[in-house]
Queue: 3 jobs
Job 1
Amino acid sequence: MISWLRWLNVSIRLHAEGESEMKLPLLDRGLSFIRWCGPFTEQFGWVSGLRIGVSLRHAMWAGDHGTVAQVRLPKWRQPVFLRSNSSDSEVFWQVFAEKQGYFEVRDDPQFIIDAGANIGLVSACLANRFPNSRIVALEIDPANFQLLQRNCSAYPQITPLKAGFWSHRAHLAVVNPEAAAWAFQTCEVDEGYSGAIPAMGVSDLMQELGWPRVDLLKIDIEGGEYDVFSGASLSWLEHVRMIVIEIHESVRPGVRELVLSTLRNNGFTDSRWSEYWIFERSPLTESGCIAGH
């Protein structure tokens, strides 16, 4: 208890941003920290929510860059691992505080593709929500992938793949290696290109994994969705029931209209959840997917 209270006190100090807030009474700073923890206390309860806030603050600022911190979530098989002083904490905030990992799904999905899985937080979240699902998590960056493997190691239903997601089998290269770990963009290159990374499309993954369909396709590939949805063949859409995608209009102008028009013309309806666009097939247009049951 004493150790935990000491951590809470340090977290309150870390939470104080700027010299003016540091001059506020400790009680005021404490209340500010508790308000900041609000999304976690609402979802996980007061005790667990504050513990998560304490751990996240330490992951954000207390460790040296690259030091791996742990955040424990109630009923999860293992902690979540985050690199200190990196974009990992922002990803954690999006997935859990903004609930990007908790979008509504009509039925329990069996076959899930997480394209652009980063450090595996959404994959692990989906594995906890749908324990009978099979999930393949694709990530191109070696450092992200290493942490993805660690975050998903307790979930045998997750298959990590160090690969990119594209409209077809190809090789990709990162065009902005200096970017934050959650913002890598790619382009297609020849196989012999230095640092080339293999990439696959939905049809390739289904064939390789022996899946009859894809119940949920989550895409967050920093503008690469333009290339996915402008591919020569979109026949793979017939086998997908639901698509959850973050559309990066600022990276690839015109991609929003491309994705919206393509999916609407192929029988999908759309809605929003946090930064995601959610596309679902209506029951009348699901016959090709349901045939795979």
Note: The domain at 99-290 is CATH 3.40.50.150 (Rossmann fold).
Job 2
Amino acid sequence: MARTVLLPRPAALPVRSLPPEAFPSSDGIPMESRTVANAAQLLRHVLIHAGLRPDLDVGFNQFLYYDPTNQHRHKGPDFWAAVGVPPRHREHWETWTEGKAPDVVVEMVSPTSRQRDQDTKLYDYAALGVVEYYWFDPQDNTWAGYRLQGSRYVDIPLEADGSRWCETLHLKLVLWDGVYDGHRRRWLRWAYPDGTLLLTTEEQREVEAQHAAEQAARVEQADRRAAAQTQRAEEEARRAAAQTQRADEEARRAAVQTQRAEEEARRAAEVARLAEDAGRRASRAEAQAAEEARLRQEAEARVARLREKLQAMGIEVPE
């Protein structure tokens, strides 16, 4: 829903300005509740810690002066952000010194400020040229956002994830359930375009501690894996040494068996040689016996013929 806001005519340049001490930083009255103060401080805290850009400055609970001749003409935004300005210590914001009003303002709604925050200030901040205006009610967690288009504020619609896009800072505003400054509740927070929250200093330390713990766990796990691998390598080396020892023993046994086989082969060869020699001797003995038998037969035959001749001659020959 668009709200048309008529901008006032530019005032004529003042004849003279009031001295700086005439413009206090605030009225000295603390913010209405600790919750309201924390909600504004959280928005400022994460932007400062993130260090998004060198020309961004943020503040909270400071007076915004827009008339150098009248210190009573001011607003007191709970949170403001400005781009294109050098970040420095500012007691308050002066539009004539900075050349403009802050670009983004967020008001934290309280029971006493609800009407002003949700209605009247839309006209006031539009008249000052505040580009984007948001209000957040910590009591019921309702909130709204508006972007200045020409002379009117236009509602900034909710995204599908429930966020609103802050075009000035190129960030999202989201509702987040969690703990800040020891208080658990729903807070309005800045987030990157992908939805990742801008972290507080404490959250950053926790994330870094978690990352360090995870890294230590990874290192420990790697050490355990390395130790296990070393143990397995040692076991494999022992098994390899045992296998080598067994192979050496088998080689020695094989060598012994080979030696025995060679000795048995030599003995078998010797036995074969002896058997061959014995065979040859036996053959010679058989041949000699045959020769002797032949000679005997021949002798006996001659004797028989001779006896026959002698008997034929009438000579008796004894047997």
Note: The first strand starts at residue 3 and ends at 4.
Job 3
Amino acid sequence: MASIGSSLLGITARLSGADNPAVLFELERVSLRRAGAPVLCELSAGLPAGASCLAGPSGSGKSTVLRLLDRLADPESGVVRYRGEDVRDRDPLALRREVGLVPQLPALLAGTVEHNLRFAADLAGLEPDVARLLELAGLDATFAARDAAKLSVGEQQRVMLARALALEPRVLLLDEPTSALDGRTREAVEATLRDLRHRLEISLVLVTHDLDQARRMSDWLVRIDAGRAVAQGPTADLLDGAAVGR
């Protein structure tokens, strides 16, 4: 049986091949415990530029992986690399400006939508084009003056997306961004994310428990269970039952 390290080398080689874009993130033998209980267990995975998905049941560790990618937590052992560099060697705030995170539940500041967007842009020393940010997130310019607290959950989630885009990131990490939405709103948000990927040439890493959503939204899939990457490869191959990346 191949070692975890050699398996990761094989995954990285496939990601770097002629048919795949450049490697964006690599996780090598990453482990993490919380309150003494294992959350991640020597997890090794690679994520290419483009649209990737981390899929697995609730409690499998997929959202924890997302936090490691943005340095909201560090592993107890193992290495997380972004574009070939250990994320611990990068300034956390600079990394988070380049790699934006949209959490599962909206967490907006009190005040108007525009206030939220300007607050984020100020962190990066940028002057936001509020109308364009709202349009990219699927909202019209009239939302700028609205009270963020009075928006629907779906509208708040779109404002969270616009706020992340205000930092002009190269990557968006999305933690189950449609889990609290009804089917119609979910479809609209998914369409917005697909549009963003092509208009901005931005990479997406999506966390979901829904394999149908993974099929719709990603080109590369990592399946996580009990803190381990149990399969990874092109989404269509993996979900069609091919033994890819095992």
Note: Strands lie at 23-34, 37-48, 51-55, 77-82, 85-86, 99-102, 171-175, 203-208, 220-225, 228-234.
